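Tokens for chain A. Residues wanted.
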């Protein structure tokens, strides 16, 4: 069983992945960001709670806790997912003072209060949009 992270920010997202030539796929993302230990625990859920993946990501590596066989059969899905989480939440987090050139593939839109609302990562072959579901708290900065 997974242990809860101490000092974590917990969020729920709607994640949409778009790959050229395929219809977009949307799933629920649950996340705990542990600032103190510099790690993110991310779970992707589809439908009525089907767990696509469950992983812990740090700036250097990832640990896979669980993956659904259908998700694991997609070539590179686990590695690409961990790299996207790393890019969005460690390398180019919303509100960070990263250089514009270093994070030109990551864009952030803000709600009227100035809080990050949606983060979009645009890669050569796919786009990932992460939209915060607000009832679970603010976006970590």
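Reply:
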């Amino acid at each position: 069983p997974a242990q809860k992270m101490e000092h974590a920010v917990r969020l729920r997202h709607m994640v949409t992945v778009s790959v050229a030539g395929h219809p977009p796929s949307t799933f629920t993302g649950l996340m705990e960001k542990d600032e103190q230990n510099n790690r993110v625990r991310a779970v992707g859920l589809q439908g009525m709670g089907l767990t696509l993946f469950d992983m812990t990501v740090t700036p250097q590596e990832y640990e896979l806790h669980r993956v659904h066989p259908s998700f694991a059969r997609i070539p590179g899905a686990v590695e690409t997912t961990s790299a996207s989480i790393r890019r969005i939440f460690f390398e180019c987090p919303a509100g960070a003072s990263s250089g514009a050139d270093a994070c030109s593939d990551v864009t952030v839109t803000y709600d009227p209060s100035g809080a990050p609302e949606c983060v979009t990562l645009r890669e050569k072959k796919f786009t990932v949009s992460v939209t915060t579901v607000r009832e679970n708290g603010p976006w970590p900065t």
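Residues 55 and 64 are 4 Å apart (CA to CA). The first helix runs from residue 69 to 72.
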